[in-house]
Amino acid sequence: MANVVSRGAQERGTRTLRAEGALKAIAVDQESPERVRRVLEQALVFAGAALAAVYAPSQDGELLCLMESAGVPRTLYGLRDSYPRAGRSPVAEAHRDGRTVSLSPAELAEHAQARRVPSGDFFLTALPVHGDGGGCLLAVSERPGGFDTDDRKCLELISEAVAFPAPAAPAEGGELPPGAFSLAMDTGRVRVGDDLLDLFGLDPVEFDGRVETLLSLTVPEDLPSLMSVVEADHMSIGDRELEFRVLQPTGPPKWLRLRGRLLPGGEGRPARLVGTVADASTLRSDVTDVARVQRLAAALATAVTVRDVGKAVVAALRRPLRADRIALAELESDRLVVTVLDPPEPEAWPELWRTEWRGEWPDAPVRAMPTLAAALREGRARIWPAGTPLEPALGEVGPGGLAVLPLPAGNRMAGCCLIGWDTPHDFGSDERALLTACAGLAGQALVRARAFDAEHELVGMLQRQLLPRRLPRLPGAVAVARYLPSTAGLELGGDWYDVIPLPDHHVALVIGDVQGHSAGAATLMGQMRTALRAYAVEGHPPDVVVAHANRLLMDMESDLFATCCYVDVDLEEGSAWCVRAGHPPPVLRYPDGGTEIAEAEGGPPLGVITQADFPMSPLRLPPGTVIALATDGLVESPDADIDEGMDRLAARLAAATPADLGLVADALLGNARRSDDVALLLLRYDGLTLRPLRESWTVWRVPQAVGHARRFARRTLRAWGVTEDLDTVLLVVSELVTNALVHTDGRVRMDLTLVNNRLRVAIADASPRSPVRPTSIGWEATGGRGILLVEALSAAWGTLPVSGGKQVWAELTLGR
């Protein structure tokens, strides 16, 4: 017979037996106002539910109203405060038919009364509650497969234990218990118990019965949260709890805790908020307060990143547990990677941890720490009191006691949380329940946050691939750029920048922003950046480059528009031309520290008007001047217009030291809001240390044209003091000029540039067709040897597109 009983107990499962024990312990205190909430919490602990709620009939019997809940906020699953008792909702069917109703995600999508949550799939189970006023227990699971057999047995036990009585409103003329109140939601009149006015410092004789009188004594910072409870428009059926402060005649404000319940009204009766207010310092420790679990669930519901999850867990556990240190780590394969440490100082943690600070755990494979590996294998919270022999890497975390919380997520472990105490710590039953409940919530949130982090990193990687990988080295100038993607959501941004080296020591600085945040905006951004670079390299002036880009965007028939600022800088002369297309102007910082927002006339954004004018504005750049170009994400905010943002940018640029542009860029981005992506481009113009010598010659199409070109080249080089390699230079000039005259029509121009001993010969013509190097030449061939001669005599040669044609160039090193 004993064997039969043993087998029966084993079949019921250890988890079910533990749930029975916990529910019996809670049932002892039937009068506790937190009994129902503590019962619901067991669904989080033993059934792995993300949410547990109980519904009970209203006073008129028409509705099933939410009376209590625990876990993740129900709004994330589209659950309502009440359901018609005669309707087809899972709550009503379970209550009306006296049977369990279980729905999968697919069934939920088809159910007439259910609404799918946008963040993911979930399973829903509704069980009837018998006894007292009846009702229904509703549980939600995010785990794959939903509730298993043991989970459903635990839920059945909880539905038997919850037995929520139908709410009975205090009689209108009856006495209220000490510290209690009853607020009529339509008139704002409030009746209070004997001790409640003492907490507010009011004389019962002088109290006028208005809720506004009590609210006027609240600390202003706490008033909004308190108003959200006492205003009917912001209140939902069920319990509410919060702490707030009231002003005292002397000394600091007093902390009070309000626990209230909104009771629905019937025919001719207004809804009423009833509850209690107590001195928060006289209440039992926060660790026994199941509201901590709900607060953590609410915080985790809004936690986006893995670090946000860690901070929420630390905030929920360290203070109520009076712990000395908490560590949260993700489990990646068989390694634990530390995410959050509190306190963050290395000195607060074991010596072994400091060698791999904020990286992998010392002896990182989990199998190297048997105690921790066993806890993760079992998947339940483990607690070791002071003096327990543990591995040094674990034991030194909590000399006075250590708790290890595996963080489950579905059928796998997402990570673990370590909580340590320096002095001997006693672990109560409520504390163990809090740890277990928090572990399940944190594990599910950690998996969601990890997926968000991975997607956000992918978005950032795609964005970076559309931007320059590195900026070019510039003669006489230094350029740096920064890009910060938005942290609000996973959409791609449309901000871009570019630095385009141009011939004759010119450089084009480009910054722009495509409307919107989407894959379409990012794609258009890449197209516009490529188009502007192509038009600039072709040799067009700045206004023509921007006009061509505008016409291209109009021809693409996109619904989006783009803003752009294009600055062509002449590094030899220290001057620039600026063209704006609906974009903020550049900010100039001069060598004396003064700043100026450039008065550059602007045109409309790209893609708005087909025939638009984009005027050019001149800029003077003394050596040491810094040019700053930014997108509106840096200079515009909801509380200030773009003019104020530009003034702030100019002031911060004036206060910066331009010796290290990277530090300047980081300082300017220090307070950037991340609700929008931000691009910043800085260029410091230092001036060329050696100015090149330049001369040009227009080659007329006459029989002696090549001879005239050679004569001009010889005369120019002698004027520059060049006496060596003249024959080589003249031969290259002859071949390039001959090719241009023979194979092209129109104007031909020759440019000579000398820097140190490097001579550049450039021949520009009106044909876009580049010369082709012949692969082989026979003895009988009459042409084709010119390019081979140029290649043999030059250090380098090539072609460049210029406006309306091309430029063939060759560089020779003189005096070799």
From TrEMBL:
Keyword Hydrolase: yes
Keyword line: Hydrolase
One Pfam match: SpoIIE
Occurrences of domain PAC (ranges): 240-292
Domain of life from the UniProt record: Bacteria
InterPro entries, sorted: Bact_Sigma-Reg (IPR052016), GAF (IPR003018), GAF-like_dom_sf (IPR029016), HATPase_C_sf (IPR036890), HATPase_dom (IPR003594), PAS (IPR000014), PAS-assoc_C (IPR000700), PAS-like_dom_sf (IPR035965)
Presence of the UniProt keyword DNA-binding in the record: no
Protein's name in the database: PAC domain-containing protein
